[in-house]
User: What shape does this take?
Amino acid sequence: MAHLLVVDDQKSICELLEITFRKEGYRVETATSAEAAMRRLQAQIYDIVISDLRLAESSGLDLLKYTKEVSPSCFFILITAVGDYEDAITALNYGADRYVRKGDKLTEELRQVVRQVDESLKLKKEAGYLRRELRKLTGLDNIIGQSAKMRALFELIHTVAPQTSRVLITGESGTGKELVARAIHEKGARAQTPFITINCGAFPETLLESELFGYVKGAFTGANENRQGLFQAAHGGTLFLDEIGNMSLTMQVKLYRVLQERKVRPVGSTEESEVDVRVIAATNKNLETEIAEGRFREDLFYRLSVIPIHLPALRERREDIPLLARSFLDRFRKAMEKPVDGIDPEALRRLEAYDWPGNVRELENTIERAVALETGRTISVSVLPEKIASFVPGQAVRTASEAAWPELPQEGMDLGQHIQGIERKYLQDALVRAGGVRTKAAALLRMSYRSFKHYAKKYGV
Assistant: This one.
């Protein structure tokens, strides 16, 4: 049976409709304001919302817009007065599915509408589930967020997708770099061409070369036939080079040449072939730091980073956590066939407060675990991992090393300038302790000599 949310600023109407629909076997919850209803929609999955157009502190239209934003599949029924005909038409234009006029037969009319909707929703859910399962997991449909940073990301994806320029996607592990790469491919002119991925950190150097460029028969032991490389396989399409920061310097030289010449030479061959490939690379490393440390080529960096895209960490867009959690909840409850269709408000607060070092991937795993362990209908704090469940919102937890740090001044501070001052001081101290010998000073700071020279020049030490 459908899950209903009834919204009316008159408590008596909420109680009447709750009793009516509970007798019909529906699950019913009520709210006496649009704000309260929005909070429930953030934490629960509803099939039908029944709301009065006129609410005391807000408009039913505002609630309608919010509902369609966070839960587009939710069926919205608007209750209107006789004189609200024009507003009802406006509501339909905003996405309301039905409206019912107030009167003596309000309860009976709502019962008939809800019965019809309940039957159609059952068919719609089954068809929608099959479509989602058959659909390829690509495009913006799988990147969830409504924060300002995510809206800017969506706009950037739509802007760069039609181009052929190379893209470098940066961000912490678990932020969804491959999803963004796929979205760029799917929204561009190459959508019907191959999209091929490779994790550059998963192969040793010699094997990575043959994977990317292919090889000819007899090139090495075990090369019993000619094999096409991924650049050739992706001809006309997109090649996604994940974890590019883990590629060896030798391979970086070879990749740079391919990007420059747009030609590949299979291992063991003297012949080159032209390739038309859009390259999208990704890394969780700071490549500018890697360049300073001598682990990444600067010329390759500029070849790859024609259009840089940085993905924000989940802790930088906490307002998206409820949407992501609900999306994962909906997916896993269907896959596991469990009647878990909501998140307890306290559990949701813990999820929003946690810093998520594993980002979206960690949140996904957390919700999957919670759905698997939950025995009720709502995810509770008890099924969350201990590190999340034990967190007390509003109470900062400092480690032993952090306890020794000075507190943030009341008036605030210039963090960048402060960090530069610390770096300069340690460079000076290391040089003094090393008797002015830079190689020894670099060793004291666990830095390469090249990196030490870079920072020494930067700070005039």
